[in-house]
Structure formats: structure tokens, C-alpha cells
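dumping these here so i dont lose them again. two proteins, back to back, each one seq then C-alpha cells. dont judge the mess
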Amino acid sequence: MTPPPPRAKPVVLVTEPVQAEPLAWLRERTDLIECELDAPGWDDALARAEGMVIRTYTPIDDALLAKAPKLKVIGRAGVGLEHVDLKACAARGVRVVHTPYANRVAVAEYVIAVALDAFRPRLFLDEPIDEKTWGPLRTDELLAERELSELTLGIYGLGRVGSAVAARASAIFGHVLYHDVRTIPENERLDAEPRSREGLLAESDVVTMHVDGRSSNRSLISAEALSHLKPNATLINASRGNVVDHDALAAWLIAHPHARAILDVHDPEPVTETNPVLGLANAHLTPHIAASTKKAKSAMSWVVKDVLRVLQGEEPEFEGLPTWIDEGGAT
């Protein structure tokens, strides 16, 4: 009896960089195409693709899906799915998988790190210092006004990332509050106390944002929201750039020179010269690096396993469904 011919490998299109080991794993098991959005050969790659792996900057809409008639699954190497039209994917029978827990610890550590940067001035010595300089450095210039143990941290969104922040913050900050649109059972609050939106903003010395980028969260931090903050509050945003009204934030920072904002995510990205907070003395911008640890990058890239599971007719571990659009708001 003649054996059946070997099954052809599925075609998978990778549109943005993923880590080397997961990429090599996927290459062994598929007919892999690496092609950036709108690069030469893009339309041909889309037409052939049965699976796709994306990250942050490949928007998936109905027009793109129409050019990919063989597509069965999209793997988002990361958490947020707001750039993926989940309803359009579902209508075409395209499943969407992602890695919702991959970067939660990395982002939580970033929040703690920048909070320490904000309140604990430091200087690394690389040359001798004379006695005249030594004294003022120790007693005045590098004197921290407040310890984190004196401060109240407000976590806006106690989801996957927000709860990881809370788990670490309770050992460092004096008081931890949270606000979320969901009712969270007491045993899942990680010692954080619930507050209304206005209460969280008014009571917190540091507010850290952990909400997703759905349309209802756009400009969540508006001029009205900023009016509730303490005049020396610190705002940290490592969630989505569009949850902050940057014009309103710039005006608030100028009016409150003892306040500060630490922003890792921006709208648009990369940061352009039109960004109104760029260059302000009390605004500190980082280039979307909160999740930039080797462990988190690797965990996000292993979304390739779920992509292959779907292509082989198996159930994925983490699927993003259209109902996501109408649920909660935390990350």
C-alpha cells in the first residue's frame, strides 16, 4: 500500500521581529515568511498566509483580512489586541491568540523602578570628589524629600499587570489603593484598597495606569481627571499612549512644576516633535521599554505555539475573543 504524501507545512507570515528561539521553532514546523507590513512581496505573502504572527505595529482590519483568504489564525506576541479587529476576524473565521501574562512582571518591575528613580536621586561616582563638593552632595543635592514608605500608590486598573504591581508595591509603599470598573473580591486585592476614580486620583501621591487601549479608555486622563490630582503628584503610564490626553497633561505639568509624569507609551509612536510633553522639565519619556526583559520578550514570542496549535486543529491556550471589546478595562 502506497503511503500518503507528506502533508505540506502551513504557511505562516511573521510581520515583526520575534525572539530567535521561538522563530527557529516555528521555522522547523512551517513554511515561514518574514515580511514587514507593506514591504515588497507583502500582498503575495498575505495571499499565501494561513497563520500570521504580529506584535504592536501591524494593524489588522477587514481590508487586510480581505487580502488573506487562507488565513486561519493571528498570533499577537504580546497582550493588547486593540489594533486587531476581533469582530472582523471572527466574521471571517480567523482565530486570534495572544500572550496575556507574558509581560506582567516586567511591566510591574518597570513601575517600581521609575518610582524609585523619581523619589531617590542618585549619582554614580567615576572620579574623585573633594571635601567641599562631597558634603553638599550628601546633605542637599541628593537628599530625597520623601521615602516611598511615606507615599500612597494608586493603581488605576487592577488586572493582570495592575495586580502584579500591587503584589510588589505593598512591601514598598506606605499605602496602596486601586480603582477598577470591575468588582474585585477582597481575597484578590493583594492588600490594595478600593477607591472611586476621583478618590484614587485625589488621595494618591503616585498614580500608575494599567488599562487597555479600547476606545472608551481614550483620554481617560483628561483635564478633568488631572484636576483631582495632588499638585505634586507623579503620573506613570506604561499601559497605552492614548489613555492620556497629552495636551491636557502638558498644561497640567506646566501649571504644577512640582508634579511629574513618567510615560513609557505614547500616541503616536515613535515620539514626534509635536508631542506637547516632550522637553518639559517634569516630564520623563522612555521608548516603550516597560516589557523589555529577555524573559518577557521570549514569553511573548512563544505565541507561535498557539498559532501552530490552531493550524493543527487543536485548541489554543490563550484566545482573544470579540467579547473582549465589551469587558472590563484593566490590563
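---- next one ----
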Amino acid sequence: MRQIQHPGPPFPERVTAVPGAPVPLRFSLEAGLSVDVAIARGFAAAGCLGGYVVLRGGRCEPFRFVMPAASPDDAHAAWYSDTFAPEGSVRIERAGAIVGERDGRFFIHCHGLWETPEGRRMGHMLAPDTVVTEPVEAVGIGFRDATFMAAPDPETHFTLFGPVSRVQGGEEPVGPRVLLARVRPNEDIGTAIESLCGRWGIARANVHGIGSLNGVRFADGRRVEAHATEVLIHEGRTGPDGVMRIDVVDMDGHIHSGPIVEGDNPVCVTFELLIEEIPGP
């Protein structure tokens, strides 16, 4: 499997996770607010510290995003493109946002697909610089007892989200479990998810999240060779009927979608996940 060399020493624990008690979320991003503020308000209204939401519909203007790119120096193994600033209104087709904390405030990490006046595009939304003009639907899962915390990562030299628990007094979530998780570079994303579920005794789960892969190998034989990509899980499920269907954009801006194979899709920089246990035998 492909390997990417990051500038710092590999962190010993390659897959980390904490459990959380899920809070179903459904709200609209309010027109006139930046996307990060609008999402933060929805989470705060539900008393949630972090989680994951899928965004659909609505429009934004201005809209700002970047795509994956090669690093201009040896300080990082991958980097971002210059900022794209489409002229006019942009409609969100679908996007996924990991919500957590950075420097004591809500912080949003968002990948998605959108319709711009120049056509369909995909990338990493710059949420503070993107303003809602028509309400956007947000549906997902929040947590009052866990979140993602952004911190400097010595391995990649980026500031990255990692899962943290906010449980008080040794309490543990009851009912179906939901894991907040992070997968580090050079780990196959499918194998990491299956291993994590096995470790926690989860037989079947829905999988949500965003991240980056070092090239992509699809189940139908298609290949993406770019060492840096931006990825959104479109449909993820473990168990007998398991599937991992993703949307991905490469460094040339080409969008690829479909189910991927397990065992040959290594993480490039990071992958942030919610693994939602499906009750039943």
C-alpha cells in the first residue's frame, strides 16, 4: 500500500476514538451569517459541544474554498490550492462538516460539492469566509459529552482535530454507541474502521466523516493517483451489507465518486469520523 512521508515522527497510536451520547440535530443555517457562525449557533442551541452535520441545498455568496495541492516546501507533505472565489451565488449540493473546538471557540472542518456559476466543484470550504444567502439544511449528530479538539500535530505539522471526551464523574453513554474517531496517515481507511468497530464490539454501524486519502482505489477498478485529495463519505456502512462510497477531488480539480476497495486506500493527512452503531443482531 502507498505510504506518504510526513516531516515529523509518527504518533504511536494510529487510530483514536472516544464514545459519546448522540443528540439528533436538524436545523437551518440562517441567512446573513457565515457558515461557521450559523453551524455554531445550531450546535449551541442544542447544548452540543461538537459532532457532524450534513449540509444540503441553500445558497451562499460570497463562497470561498480550496482544493488539495502539492506542498511548496518540505514543511508539509501536502498543502492547499490558492483560494477559489466564484463570482455569484453558489448552491451546496452536499457537504459534511466536522464540528469541534479550536482556541476555545467552535471550529468547522467542511468538505463538499457545490454548484458554482462555472460548474460543479468540490473542495474544502472556508466556512468563516462563506456567507449564507438562502437557508441551508443541516442534519446530523451532536454531543454534549464529547467533541473534536484542534491541536498542533507534530507528525504532519498541521493543526488537526482529534476526539476528546467531556464526560463528568465517570459516566458512560447508554444505548447505541457513537464513536468520535480520528485515523492518522498511512492507515487504510476501511481497515481502520473495521478494526475500530471490532475493538468496541460494534457489529454494524453507519459511518460519517471527511478526510484525505493518498490516492484512491475504487471497487470498479478506477484509480486516482494524486497523493493529496479531499474526501467526503457519501455513504458508509459496516457489517454484512457494508459499503464505503465516497466523493473525492484530486489536485487537478477532478471529482470522482463511488465505492472504494478495502485495504488500498491509505489516509494522507487525517480522517475524522463518526461511527454510529446500528442496534440489532
